[in-house]
């Protein structure tokens, strides 16, 4: 495997009875970058993570992590990675400090180094006040931060984060984003699965969208948004009776069938001419005597990409 590629998978297949969890997945993560792995529940995201971390054998296909074959050299792979799964894997009877110290010792650190690394991560993840308390007294967000800290104890070359900010409050999520940014700045490679599309937009250099075990799209966030096409013109009108007129006007200035939220009196359509389409829509609505309470022109979001590709919203929005 090329030294400038930290993770690579070729044609990964995994089945459970009649269910094909992975159906020929390919992926590649250049060293020092973040790959965002997106997909609905059951798409195969966690199965990919489990194979790359040697916790699961594929039925066919190959994968390499930090230059090591996950099937032929599982020990070397495990030495090179950090993993934070969907559920915090901490020992509830140990303190926060003891959890991290134990991980350091299991990685072969001497006692002073393990102690210093544990203290540094306790501080980094804002757990200082709780460091001496048993983990079973931690809130869900604190347990997530402790688990993520545990994945970083050995300063791994590759970090796999399976929905790392699930259950965190906004401050905790922003702190985690900052830590991930620091990791990448230091040359660490990150595979991130997430149900928060803003998270992928913020952190990922490239994005892979999978559904039913197959890759259905890949590229940068801007590339994927561009594939959806056009900006979104959105109008909110004053009266329910005006919604149909607004729909008709937006259908005339847009490039597709408008979507209508009758309850919110909101009509939205894709437009190709941007601001010109907005001005023309407002002119026609004024002629029709429609009261416009709000108007906006928006670039496609990753939510639009996800909806376009999979046919439904993310679990987050559902």
From TrEMBL:
NCBIfam families: drrA. This is ABC-2 type transport system ATP-binding protein. It is found in: Cell membrane. Pfam families: ABC_tran, DrrA1-3_C. SMART domains: AAA. The lineage of its organism: Bacteria, Bacillati, Actinomycetota, Actinomycetes, Pseudonocardiales. Residues 7-237 form the ABC transporter domain. Gene3D superfamilies: P-loop containing nucleotide triphosphate hydrolases. It comes from Actinophytocola oryzae. GO terms for biological process: daunorubicin transport; doxorubicin transport; response to antibiotic. PANTHER family: ABC TRANSPORTER ATP-BINDING PROTEIN, DOXORUBICIN RESISTANCE ATP-BINDING PROTEIN DRRA. Belongs to the ABC transporter superfamily. Drug exporter-1 (DrugE1) (TC 3.A.1.105) family. Its main location: membrane. One of its GO terms (molecular function) is ATP binding. Keywords: Antibiotic resistance, ATP-binding, Cell membrane, Membrane, Nucleotide-binding, Translocase, Transport.
